[in-house]
Design a protein that fits this description.
The protein is α+β, with helices and mostly antiparallel strands. The chain contains eleven helices and 17 strands. The chain folds into two domains: 109 residues, 3-layer Sandwich (Rieske Iron-sulfur Protein), CATH 2.102.10; 198 residues, Naphthalene 1,2-dioxygenase Alpha Subunit, Chain A, domain 1. Strands 10, 11, 12, 13, 14, 15, 16 and 17 form an eight-stranded antiparallel beta sheet that branches.
Length: 382
């Protein structure tokens, strides 16, 4: 009877959901309830979330990892639903559709060099900027070639060597990265990163992508889940700052750790023993900045209950790789996966609907949930 009563209570709660015109997440974190469980478990919300991701800036890579004339970027295909090909034409980089405009064949299956892009199916050939170059057997075709025979281009933006893709020209890389640029101008001035493929990782997780982001956006769990990382950080040295489309978490080194940034006078963080800057950029990118360099975490939703996470490492000071907070990436990741997958199981329970936020520790999660639900397309159905 007790269980039946609980189900009745949950049913009543769902029937009394606020109207669609009300905010799903209250802006006041002290009274707000967390994201409803169906946002993590319901296919219709997942489809809407994927639409949102296709309209956002997505990390393509760092210029140091593009060593070939033509490089397909498979993770962008998973996020944007569009096979893409990054090319270099003289000194200019392009991001093109990796689909032949003749019959839809994938043009490049792997990175390679060459003066042109040739379809392996019927030999249609393109310049590396996407313009049609040659097509056998089309001498008698009228009004050929047309602009539609060229490869479509996606917007490719660069920020200090990092490249970002977008299907929309309206997305502004400078606006997106402005909090990082302003906070870390002293670091960016002397940036010389190099991709280290030996440190690349790919993880497949049985959990919704939002849960992975939720977990990243709070240090609340660190003492309970990450004992080694907790020992590397100062006990009171974890802070969170929220921006419109970004969240910054700062981890301070403990007194015994000598691996931290040398921050110049005049910076807002001058005098602090900063061991790591953890930046989250809406909606699905983490930029973890350590004294040794940068670890990018690319979050790829693969289904409503599965996620792929890519780690990409860009190194500036290799002698610091095995020291400090930035030396524990693999261990911390596996610990995070354990709790994220456990939460996914719990969110599918009929006995759970939604929780509350800690105003002290979960400001970042609250910010993410407000961003995720502020558009009308994410409103709950009545």
């Amino acid at each position: 009877m007790q269980l039946e009563s609980h189900f009745t209570t949950l049913k009543t709660m769902r029937q009394n959901i606020e109207p669609m015109s009300e905010a799903i997440i209250d802006p006041d974190i002290r009274v707000a309830q967390t994201l409803p469980s169906e946002f993590y478990t319901d296919e219709k919300y997942f489809s809407k979330q994927m639409e949102e991701l296709t309209r956002s800036l997505q990390f393509a890579g760092h210029r140091s990892e593009f060593t070939s004339d033509m490089t397909p970027i498979s993770h962008l295909e998973s996020i944007l639903g569009q096979p893409t090909l990054r090319t270099m034409n003289e000194s200019e980089a392009f991001l093109l559709s990796n689909v032949c405009t003749h019959r839809g064949m994938i043009l490049c299956q792997e990175s390679r060099d060459g003066k042109s892009i040739q379809c392996p199916y019927h030999g249609r050939t393109f310049h590396r900027d996407g313009r049609l170059k040659h097509m056998p057997g089309f001498a008698d075709v009228r009004n050929f070639p047309a602009q539609s025979d060229d490869l479509p281009r996606l917007k490719l933006s660069e920020w200090f060597g990092f490249e970002f893709a977008s299907v929309s020209d309206a997305v502004d890389i400078e606006a997106m990265m402005q909090p990082v640029t302003q906070r870390m101008d002293w670091w960016l001035e002397n940036l010389h990163l190099k991709h280290d493929p030996s440190r690349d990782r790919e993880w497949n997780i049985d959990a919704n992508w939002i849960l992975y982001v939720d977990n990243y956006l709070e240090g609340f769990h660190i003492p309970f889940v990450h004992p080694e990382l907790n020992n590397a950080l100062a006990s009171d040295g974890y802070s969170t700052e929220c921006f419109d489309n970004a969240v910054l978490q700062i981890g301070l080194a403990n007194d015994a750790d000598d691996v931290y940034f040398e921050i110049p006078e005049g910076s807002i963080d001058a005098g602090k023993r900063v061991a790591a800057y953890y930046w989250w950029l809406y909606p699905n990118l983490m930029m973890n900045i350590y004294p040794w360099g940068v670890s990018m975490n690319i979050i790829i939703p693969t289904s409503v209950n599965t996620t792929t996470v890519l780690f990409r490492s860009y190194v500036q000071k290799p002698e610091l790789l095995d020291k400090g907070a930035g030396s524990l990436l693999d261990k911390v990741e596996l610990q995070d996966q354990f709790v994220v997958e456990g939460c996914m199981r719990g969110l599918q329970s009929k006995l759970y609907q939604r929780g509350r936020y800690s105003p002290t520790h979960e400001k970042g999660v609250h910010q993410f949930h407000m961003n995720l639900t502020k558009e009308k397309r994410f409103e709950r159905e009545s």
